[in-house]
Amino acid sequence: MARSNSEPSRLAGHGPSTSDDFVTRVLEVVAAIPAGRVMTYGDVAAAIGSRAARGVGQVMAYYGSEVPWWRVIRASGHAVADHEAEALQHFRAEGTPIAHTRDGGYRVELRRARYVPSV
DNA sequence: AAGTTGACTTTCG
DNA sequence: TCGAAAGCCAACT
Q: pTM of this prediction?
């Protein structure tokens, strides 16, 4: 793991160089997603004027603890890797449209739950 | 400065 | 519909 974090000063805000960086913008968009709706990593990246879908994932992996990370899923409709069970609890509580697969898994119905911040 | 990694996306078979 | 490969972007070493 390369991103094992060496300086969490970003959250402390004692570094002005990170006041409006990629990280902050991603958190803003994710926090703006209403309950019962979801956005793909690519959509979040596009919302901030970028295409770094993976970059969004990096931010979520570290700062996700402060935002509704479960509302950010993959373009395939699958929830966040290694946290599907956790996300499912939130989806059921928020009424997010879910499609259960025959192999015991599940996937979000992007067609219905996809949220587009056109405002 | 260059290389590696990652909670991704899209295209091809 | 599913699986593998290539592509892209940002952050860390």
A: 0.86
